[in-house]
Structure formats: structure tokens, C-alpha cells
Amino acid sequence: MTRTLLLLLSLVAGAARADCPPTPALPTAAQTASWAAAAPDRGPLWRISRGGHSSFLFGSLHIGKADWAYPGPALRRAWDETEVLAVELDPADIAPALAALPPPAPLPPGLARRVDAQARVACLPPGVLAAFPVMLQLSTLTLLEARRDGFDVGWGQDLMLLNRAKAEGRPVQSLETPQEQLAALEPTAAELPEVVDGALKQLQRGQMRTPLRKLADTWVRGDMKTLADYARWCGCADTPAERAWFKRLNDDRNLALAERITALHGAGQRLLVAVGALHMTGPQGLPKLLAAQGFTVEPVHPAK
Questions:
Q1: In angstroms, rounded to a whole number, what is the distance separating the alpha carbons of residues 166 and 189?
Q2: Rounded to an integer, what distance in angstroms lies between the CA atom of residue 65 and that of residue 155?
């Protein structure tokens, strides 16, 4: 999931039937104060040091629950010790890129009917997703399904940090362009039927929620070993086409992300980098790539 999905979710109408994904309820002032005061650390956090100064690398989750949208003690200290927030993509850059996209190629009729049927299950207005690439459509349907378990993109950690940065006037650096993210998200023409079919089967069979819950629980604990095995238990990388698409979406972006983090840090900026936690896993994970570029990488949470 990417910040691109925020724009799509803004199109979602309120729930009209009892079986619709519930619309997230805004917390009360008392809840906000209580959750902010008692927030524990969630998600993996590293200190990365090179050239005489330190930055921080935070593995974020793009969805969350209402009480997760507040930083714990270690993340607050990382905020205080840095001066620039670096994220995959600033949502402010999304709308122009989406507006410039050519109309998506039509899906085969059978797949198109299945996407439309799933949009009706999610209580979306007819045709509201049609102008967007199919993987953004499916990602939006997945996020709506996650609402049934109390998750929402509005409570994601990176959005929480972005809102705080903009409220405080902290500079925000995007590590990618919208065009790069959209290109990574889309399967090739040969992969597309299999990848779309796999995602639709998970949605239609009600099999999307279990891996999403496991992902969230694993992220909260900072369990990097289980996160590294995500492709084995997500149900989203079971075929050669799905595995090729997932590798391009996740692993293949990491080298460019690491190079841009290195360049910003090397320019003397003390960064808090918030990038999706799955980019921290495996031999091409960001902590290993940054260590290979001369950074001292120290776990902060969970601490060794």
C-alpha cells in the first residue's frame, strides 16, 4: 500500500448498509489526550550514523487503528533529534500525477465484472474507481476491507508523522516520485490477469483480513523475522507472476530508496525516514543496504 491510496479513499461514500465497511469514528478529545500520553513504541526503528551525525530509519505501517496514531517514547526522541522528515511520497504530489495519467487499459470483461462486483460489496458508488489503474482499485478495496477490523489508512504511522511535520513547519522530503510508485505498482501485461485474479479471489473469499491482521500484529511487535516471511503467508505471492510483481513492488525499489537516503544524510540533514516496514526485510532490506553504504545501523526498537 502507498500514500497514493489516500486520494482514492477520499472518494469513498459513507456506509449506507449494515454490511458496508464501517466509516472510522473520530476520537474524542479525551481519547486523543489519553492515547497520546500512554502511546507505546510500535514498529521497528533504527539509528543510522555516518559522517559524524545520525538519522533514524522507521519501518512504518500504512494502516493503523485510532490509538496507534501517536508516537511512542523512542519515536518521539527520534523526532526531537532530527530536523527533516523523509517519506516514500508526500500526498501533496499525488493529485497532479493521477490527473496526468492516460485512461487505464480496459480489463478483460470477466475481471472487470468481478472488480465491479467487489466495489458494490464495499459500498462504493458505481464507477468511482474506473479512472484509476486496476492495482489502485484493488488496493482501495483491500483498505476498505481492513476497516472491518478497525484499521484505516488515516491512522497510518507515516500519515501521522506527515501531519505533525506540516503542523510544525518541518521540511518533508519525498524519496520517490508519483510516477516511480505508480510504475512499480502496476503489473506487466503478462502478469496482470494472474495478479488481479489472485487479489480478487482473496477479497471474494474473505481471505484478505487474516493476513492484514497478522501484518499489523507483526509490525506492532517489530517482529522482523515474521515480516521477512510476508510473501509466504500473505496469500499475495503464491504464483510466479504474483512473486515477480511483489518483488518489483517491494525489493526492487529499495536500492533507489537507500541511495536517496544516503544523499540526503550526506548533505548534512538529520533525517527521520519513514518507509513501509516491508522495505526493511530480506537481503535487499534498507538496513542492510545502508550498512553496505557505510552507515552504522543500530536497532532502537525493538532493542537488541
A1: 39
A2: 6
The rounded distance, in Å, linking the Cα atoms of 277 and 125 is 32
The whole-model pTM stands at: 0.92
* Surface-to-core class of residue 164, CB atoms within 10 Å of its CB (0-12 exposed, 13-18 middle, 19+ buried): middle
* CA pair distance 118, 76, nearest whole angstrom: 40
C-alpha cell at 155: 491512522
Q: 3-state class of 55 per DSSP?
A: strand
How much of the chain, in percent, has pLDDT values that exceed 90? 80
Strand order through the sheet with 53-60: 172-174, 84-87, 271-276, 53-60, 45-50, 296-301
CA distances from 59 to 6, 74, 178, 196, 295 (A): 19, 13, 20, 27, 17
Give the pLDDT score at 107: 87
Contacts of 252 (CB under 8 A, 6+ apart): 184
Assess contact for 23 and 15: CB atoms under 8 A: yes
Neighbours of 113 (CB within 10 A): 11
- C-alpha–C-alpha distance, residues 247 and 184, integer Å: 10
Average pLDDT over residues 257-283: 97
Ordered by start, the domain boundaries in the chain are: 39-301
Reported as a pLDDT band with limits 50, 70 and 90, residue 8 is: low
- By CB atoms closer than 10 A (0-12, 13-18, 19+), residue 130 is middle
Q: How many residues does the chain have?
A: 304
